[in-house]
Predict the 3D structure of the following.
Amino acid sequence: MHPARFHLVLTVSGRPVAQGWWASEATARGKFAGWVGEWGKPEARVTLVDEDTGETLTTWPETA
């Protein structure tokens, strides 16, 4: 298990701009919402991944 297993990535126009890791899923989801609020524009993409399972927990914008 990763001690900070919840990995948040912000890309703009396909380039990484910011990353963060948190031990708490609730904290990571709060950061996710903040990043979407701050960076939510057409060129941006925010992704939250559980590093232990490899599962993508959520993305913005949502993908079908």
